[in-house]
Description:
heterodimer; A: alpha+beta; CATH 1.10.630.10; five-stranded mixed beta sheet; B: alpha/beta; FAD/NAD(P)-binding domain; Enolase-like, domain 1; six-stranded antiparallel beta sheet; globular
Amino acid sequence: MTSVALLHQITDFANRADPYPLYAELRKTPVVQDEAGPYLVSTYWEIHSLLHDPRISSDARNLSPQAAKATGQDQDPELPPNFLRLDPPEHDRLRRLAMRPFGPPHTPRRVYDMHGELAGIVSGLIDAFRDRRTIDLVDDFSYPFPVTVICRLLGVPREDETRFHTWADTIAAGLDPVGTDEEREAQKQAVRQARAGLAAYLAGLIEERRRSPRDDMLSAMATDHGPDGQLTPVEMVTTSSLLLIAGHETTVNLITNGMLTLLRNPDVLQRLRDDPGLAVPLVEELLRFEPPVQLLPQRNALADIDIAGTTIPKGASVYLVLASGNRDPQRFLDPDRFIPDRPDNQHLGFGSGIHNCFGAPLARLEAQLALTELVRRLDNPRLVEDPPPYRQNAVLRGPRHLGIAFDGLKP
Amino acid sequence: MSLDGSLEKFRREGRIVVVGASLAGLRAAETLREEGFAGTLTMIGDEPYEPYDRPPLSKQVLLGRVPADHTALPPRRALDAQWRLGVAATGLDVAQKRVQLADGDAVEYDRLLITTGVRARPWPHELEADLDGVFVLRTTDDAAQLHRRLSAGPRRVLVIGAGFTGSEIASACRERGLEVTVAERGAAPLVGALGGVVGEVAANMQREAGVDLRCGVTVTGLEGDPAGRLRCAHLSDGSTVEAEVAVVCLGATRNTEWLASSGLGAGPRGIACDAGCRAFDVRGIVTDDVFVAGDVARSPHPLFGYQFLSLEHWGNAIAQAETAAHNMISASSDRRPHIWTPSFWSAQFGVNIKSVGVPPMADEIMVVQGSLAERRFTAVYGHQGRVIAAVTFDQAKWLEFYQQQIERAAPFPPEFGTVDRRPEEAHPVPAEFPDPSLPSHGPTVTLSGHSPIDRRISFTPLHA
């Protein structure tokens, strides 16, 4: 039986700035059981195939008792899972209902029509750098931008940010595997409290929107009746919690990783300055090269699955290491190079299959606008330190601060 | 003696003629240039238009969302080709390496690619077919005319044949608020392509959308008024349907008549070619300089016992065109086989339908995910104990997994559990494909035996 301790190294904060050598090590055995229990899948085609495999579940109730204990993924007795942690048909119904006010086929123009609003937020945030010569990109831009956007989209007051920020951070950190039983129990309790706090907050807001609806997603969820009927009050809370956290803990990393990568590759930064159209393929390459979601730790096997010479047994926990698949030389030529116009770039940055990133169109647009404007307006930007300090999170990985010095601001 | 030098010369200054300027012809021509063919390239097409995309013609165009002349295929690259559009090829002399054109001209080639595709099978009675209000739907002109007529608000539209095209047209009519009757010879819509179990779902879908669906009947005659306008149709059950518009959707005919005296293995099921896309002649000998791709080709498939497979699938046209083009300008050791797994999609009555594999080959079907009653499901088809095809209704994201099952010849019925398995539906039942000797709208994928010579098969007339 194969046994390795790579998972421990991946979660080890010392490896946060550059986990990619670890992933290369991991790919030597495409599917391997970690000594902590889960099966780690690290190569592109194996990840891709499991993302489309109906024998893979996202519902923690299908974990074997040992796997559930080892990963600490059991049911919150207070709140049912959101659609990220559900299988069809419940997943499909909830996601369809959540998609109705957000995208096609019911609301195809939602993201497209936000272009002007997003550009305005970006300009406003950058204008505020006028009298400064250094910024912390995370606190001054990458965090406030997507948070403002998700608040407006959902209809959550921006001024409540200090309240839900802590809850969101705690829940996001709860995705990370931790070592001892005590740590797991503490993490679980913290996550449950945060979920409950966020749920109570959003329930109040949804009730307000139900009584006096506005043009936002909470109002639509609370009032809309489509062919699938309506979300139940509890489903509204779990769904809106998911969207608020996801819109908030991921794009920040995409934008920050983007500037970090551009500042490490000044020739590419200059190309983007000269040709803003490059932003479209560049953001795809970024999602491959530095994906904000490094791995998906919430899958399990509904049947014995033979893959890459290994059998993942029924009930086992399965971790899909997206960031490793994105660097798989069997799939991508010269995978450790950042090539902004890389052809044939079907990365795993947004996952794939039925759980592929719900907010992907919005995240793409946010990152494209943000990076284009930052490189256009910042005069001679450079990194204050490299590598920058990272957030603790291994799953939702990104810098905690990104100091950038610059000589001035273009209009 | 090495022939390599002659291949290099051919790649540099040879003459390639592509007959058929639609999806397969265009993508083949682009691949030829992409892979370095620098000689002369001639594109011959009987329609007067640049290559355009056909799937939208029965969907967005009929709904008025896209004008019929706005479906041009986006070019992948500049072609530097001589275009002979609006001129049909009428004959082929393989000894002289010459294509005869309808305008009296002839074009010589060193290598020829045939991508003439199919055309809509017309209504068999010419006088009735000429009535004002009787349509087929295959070309952009067909779509423009039909759209114009639907926009005039006919009191009722009759769709003859409930295959994919007929069902999509019925769907568009209902979406436009038009009354529509569908007459289908089989027991249900889509039955030839997907079998009776799935056909039943399609039938319910149509009826729920307000389609007047009549199955198990044929249209025995179309009747006009004294001014030559369609007035009504007579059905084999003795009933009459009053309709101002009738759309004939009885499947397609291969455009091979122009090859009748060419000596190629061409017939009603298409032109037989080997896995490398080289055409067979009537002696069953593979030719060196004539290649085939797209709907008009029938080629042997390793997954299906090397039977010749005829496909009318968009994705196949592209894949086979790319393979044919590559092989036309490559040495034999560098050639590739065309082993595309058949797949197609349809959009109708708000449902996305996708299929992979060869459903009509199946004996049994099993709903592995979702539910027929909810019209969201994945069904797997079995043939002699292995998975041979799969179809999804609004569950396309799972199809890739089942395609791998088909390609690995996985056992049927599947032995493993999946998400969304419904115990009440998840057991194998007969797939209920109709007797293939009684064609109606016809399946879009056909297994046509092992013989490269296809002369004996003829279309069974519609009328009893």
